[in-house]
Amino acid sequence: MSEKHQTKKIHEVLPWILASLPFVAVVCFVIRYGITIPYWDQWALVPVLGRMYDGSLSFNDLWMQHNAHRILFPKIIMLALAKLTRWNIAFEIAVNVALVTATFAVIAYQLKRTANDFGDKLILWLLPVVSLLVFTLAQWRNLVWGWQMQILLSVFAGVAGLIVLSVRPMTWPRFVLGSMLGIVATYSFTSGTSFWIVALITICATTQPKRTAHWGIFCIALAAIVMTLHLSNYAIPENHSKVSEVFAKPGVFVAYVLKFIGVALFLKGDILPLAAGAFGLISFAVMAHFLYHERMVRPAALLPYISIALYSLGNGMVTAIGRLNRGSAQALSSRYASASAIFWVAWTVVLALFALGLISKLKKTKQKPARISLTIVIAAFAVLVAANSREGLLAGSERSDFYMAAKQELISGDEYKVLRILLRDVDSLKIHRETLRQYKLTVFSTTD
Question: Using an 8 Å Cβ cutoff, are 131 and 23 in contact?
Fold first, then answer.
């Protein structure tokens, strides 16, 4: 093998090696800090588990609301895992890691297609940055808490579905697969309902003008069915805001959405995440418009990234509607970093395409320095993402001793000083503990 060929091989493999490091960090993080006892909302699954074991489980147990969400598909997965493992919650955490990995795999596949389409291998060097974003520890709560499968499943299904729908030409298999993934996103977490608006935009942009109405009608009809079922007997939780509050507090709504977009870069603060969200949205729109208007890249190659960016924005808007009464600071919860991160994935790719398009118009003598400058900018952005990921690492590690103490209280049942923080209703806590003990679930699976 020639030295030139070896160098080429290294350049092809090295981005993938670097991209694997954040995945390894996540695996180590969840092994060390994973919450393997029922936590907060997760206690709501205990009565459902009891009905599964006594044979009285019904479809309504799977379909009924949990807060503002219908978590049909996460419940099915969690119940199946519980049955197979006696509710060893570590397996739920493993599924969470698998979902994040699947999200990265789908985006990496699309990025490779973009690199081939654009004809510049530098695009593949975005893989490590994409990996830093998708596997960011800023989403630490979603990683260590099995119950958060609902968010990660909604993000994965939404991203995968939109990428499928963005492929030309539109065919029935693609439409069916993309729509099925959209249904999973919708019935995993309420913010997944934003999938359908983005899907319609994607389909209209993907199909030929003569066929746009054809596919658009199918998409609207399916979305109407899915949303009608979702809203059937739907009740707005008492602790959630109503749609009317958006019109009463438009400034808070905008601030919430901007912070939601910015949380993948800044978990803390007030101005920085808001400014990051505003800068990200404005710059993304400008770059995408310029790429399309100047024909620097085929619209079909740009569409997947516009779609997933819009899905992230849609997640933020739907979340803001329900959480507006808690103020814009609530948007900085780590659980939202998963949906925020996919916006910045799209932003990073569009930035690279935009910059490389401009560089291609320069004289050859100026192209190399310009490419080096682009590399420095992207590296600096990666450092910012890594720094915010570190904030997530610290937040997750700070609670480790608390969870260990709670686990010991759950096993002993002597006192509920720590456990009552996880579920304030002590009477319900005692009933749930007895259900776990009766069916030998979670911490009681190995006891006599």
Answer: yes
